[in-house]
Amino acid sequence: MLHALVHLPLVLPPVVTGWLLLLLFGVRGPLGALLNHFFGIRLAFTTAGAALACGVMVFPIMVRAVRQAIDAIDPGLEQAARTLGAGRLDRFWSITLPLAGPGVLVGVTVAYATSLGEFGAVITFAANIPGETRTLPLAIFSALQVPGGELAAAKLSAVSLVLALTGLLLSEFLGRRMNKAAGR
Amino acid sequence: MTVFFSARHKFPGFEFDIKFEAPGRGVTALFGPSGAGKSTVLAIAAGLLRPEQCHFGIDGVVLADSESDLWLPPERRRVGLVFQDARLFPHMPVDANLRYGLRRRTAKTIEFDTVVELLGLAALLARRPHTLSGGERQRVAIGRALLSQPHLLLMDEPLASLDAARKADILPYLARLPAALGLPIFYVTHAFDEVVRLADALVLIDGGKVVASGKLSDLAARADLPIATRDDAAAVLDCTVAEHDTGRGLTRLICGTVNLLVAAQPIHPGAKVRVRIAAREVILAHGDTRGLAESISLHNILPGTVRSITADAARHTAMVEIDLGGPALLARVTTDAVSHLELAKDAPVLALIKSMSVEVLPIVEEY
């Protein structure tokens, strides 16, 4: 059930995810009202809201990466650690995490790069407020709506391209270095 | 000082029911065909597999007992396990691998430097596991297990994945462990050569049951056990070097009541050596010792009595077990020879062994 819930944003149309977030975290929504009442936090139509929408959208990508990284570890190594006197938490810190590290890192980087491109959920939940909730793709879209905005759109697209490429190269590089450190 | 092991478990299509007692020091080999349940014994002893019924303890300290619902987890047993595939941690250098178990124990009787020297690891400490050869990996794995300060060391076919040359490299290291550390070791193997080289006690396992267990020298000389049907069936005798006869180029060994003359050995008198005498190399005869000794080149003419005869109809041979007044020998002879010599239980017989047929095994270095 939790598994399905976490992976839902991957298959649901982003606009639907954004709308569900709005229903939950809107000022009148059950969670949004609580947050607003006790902590004075407003999420809908704010920068924090845009971040939340991005986070929810890319969370499944990260979960997948982490799970794959942990599943790829030879269970025999944990057995060996057990016979050498390492308890559960000890094994996680000394064996599982260092060996899953490269996979986790790649997952985080890819998720971050993907989150920069989030459009549908953000515009539905946090709208398109310049300087507050206008993400890169939203800015490009807005620029294209204005006559003569092609140049601005092109510049923003270039920025987006550079960011995406840097993210991927960085994850590749770090992953390789950590794999080397992990002796593979 | 003993290790007590008994466990019962029903696997689908396989019933595991094994019970034996092993000495509290030295190597106990668990020997049998693959799939017999040898590795299962180790998994249960290490705590990685929990059977339906179990009672397991070392020196009276009970680690698992199904009656009182006691089951210590592996991390609290202080039972070291050397896996067939080494299982070194790939993200740590050899040094950190060795110290992994050591750092997690408070009482330290087995020291880092001792183990490094014992297993010849000094040159490997800074290396990464993936740069090691198979034999080096196993040596590190053994060191890592030893440094976790175990009360019992389990080894699961540690040499099975190595080629013959690597095996020969690592065997001397294994052979010196028991004397140097004085702890019990369970050694699983299906190579009888390794048993003869390393073991003091033997547990024969087949089909999830114990066929026989006891001292290696006692079991190796039994004609009725499955190991006696092997082509390399042989008696194993633990001897002491008595004296050298430099003039004749011979060394005299003593094993209980038995004197053996072998080609001169570069071993000082008083040292303990193990010899193997292949069953097919032993000749049986009637008559009196003195008469024979004058007319034959043979040095070893040993009087004994027939303890049992086990026929192997398919091969037209019989395995004869000979009591030498303490130690025992095996002789494989043809069925024709049995009737010709009128061999029967309790009949007196002479066992004739060429000096060259007494194989003196490499001596274990004193550490």
Structure, described:
The complex is a heterodimer of chains A (184) and B (367). Helix content of chain A is 78%, strand content 0%. Chain A is mainly alpha-helical. Chain A has a single domain, classed as MetI-like fold, CATH 1.10.3720.10. Chain A is flat, with a radius of gyration of 20 Å. In chain A, 30% of the residues are buried. Chain B is α+β, with helices and mostly antiparallel strands and 367 residues long. Chain B folds into 2 domains: 2-220, P-loop containing nucleotide triphosphate hydrolases (Rossmann fold, 3-Layer(aba) Sandwich); 234-360, RNA polymerase II/Efflux pump adaptor protein, barrel-sandwich hybrid domain (OB fold (Dihydrolipoamide Acetyltransferase, E2P), Beta Barrel), CATH 2.40.50. Chain B is 22% helix and 37% strand. Chain B is built from 9 helices and 21 strands. Chain B has helices at residues 38-46, 94-102, 112-118, 134-147, 164-181, 192-198, 216-220, 289-294, 335-340; strands at residues 2-11, 14-23, 26-31, 53-58, 61-65, 70-71, 79-82, 152-156, 184-189, 201-206, 209-215, 234-245, 250-255, 258-263, 272-278, 283-285, 300-312, 317-323, 328-334, 348-353, 358-360. In chain B, the strands form 4 sheets. Chain B has a 6-stranded mixed sheet with strand order 7-8-9-3-10-11, sandwiched between helices. The mean pLDDT of chain B is 90. Chains A and B meet through helix 5 and helix 6 of A and strand 7 of B.
Which secondary structure elements does this structure contain, and how are they paired or packed?
The complex is a heterodimer of chains A (184) and B (367).
Chain A: H1 2-11, H2 14-25, H3 30-39, H4 47-71, H5 75-83, H6 88-116, H7 120-125, H8 136-145, H9 150-181
Helix pairs in contact in A: 1-4, 4-6, 5-6, 6-9, 8-9
Chain B: E1 2-11, E2 14-23, E3 26-31, H1 38-46, E4 53-58, E5 61-65, E6 70-71, E7 79-82, H2 94-102, H3 112-118, H4 134-147, E8 152-156, H5 164-181, E9 184-189, H6 192-198, E10 201-206, E11 209-215, H7 216-220, E12 234-245, E13 250-255, E14 258-263, E15 272-278, E16 283-285, H8 289-294, E17 300-312, E18 317-323, E19 328-334, H9 335-340, E20 348-353, E21 358-360
Parallel strand pairs in B: 3-9, 3-10, 7-8, 8-9
Antiparallel strand pairs in B: 1-2, 1-4, 4-5, 5-6, 10-11, 12-13, 12-15, 13-14, 15-21, 16-20, 17-18, 17-20, 18-19
Helix pairs in contact in B: 2-4, 4-5
